[in-house]
Amino acid sequence: MTSKGRRLWILVLWTIAFVAFAWFFIPRPAWDDDEYVKWFIFGMLAFGPRWFLDFLVVLVIAFSLERRRGLHRLYILCVWALITAGAVWLNVLRPPIPPSTSFQHSLQLQARLHLFAFPWLFGLLVALWIALWAEKKIAT
């Protein structure tokens, strides 16, 4: 497969993942609401841009990883994954207040996930992008 074909596949998978993530995690109003369009647009503007920025950086990282492979990049990705898993544990999964119902737990988890998206996840993704860029410059 050519580089252009791989990039097209990456773009298609990125688009599918972005739409699926937006569908499941960005809150939508009830379908029978009279002002559905207004609340839908408000929800997209309130929660969409931070996730769109994160997904955009993920796309740039995916294109960067498509070009070159190597052991150094694997080490960078492994260290980044461990740091990200720790940040997710501290900011999203570790519950500060025990919820009384499973619905409240779900709402708390979703709220913490949205708060984690920006600045934590964005900062971690930018750090990964910079690390991969620096590795490329050092290798050439």
Task: Report what the structure shows.
The chain has about 140 residues and is mainly α. The chain has one domain (about 5-140). About 85% of the residues lie in helices and about 0% in strands. The chain contains four helices and no strands. The protein has helices at about 5-25, 35-65, 70-95, 100-140. Helix 1 runs antiparallel to helix 2, helix 2 packs parallel to helix 4 (about 100-140) and helix 3 runs antiparallel to helix 4. The mean pLDDT is about 85.
Short précis:
The protein has 4 helices and no strands.
Give a quick set of tags describing it.
mainly alpha, 0% strand
Q: Tell me the fraction of residues in β-strands, as a range.
A: under 5%
Q: Helix coverage percent of residues? A: over 70%
Structural class: mainly alpha
Count of structural domains: 1
Number of helices, counting only DSSP H or I runs of 4 residues or more: 4
Distance between the termini: 24 Å
- Round the mean pLDDT to the nearest integer and report it: 84
Radius of gyration: 18 Å
Give the helices and strands, then pairings:
Layout: H1 3-25, H2 36-67, H3 71-93, H4 102-139
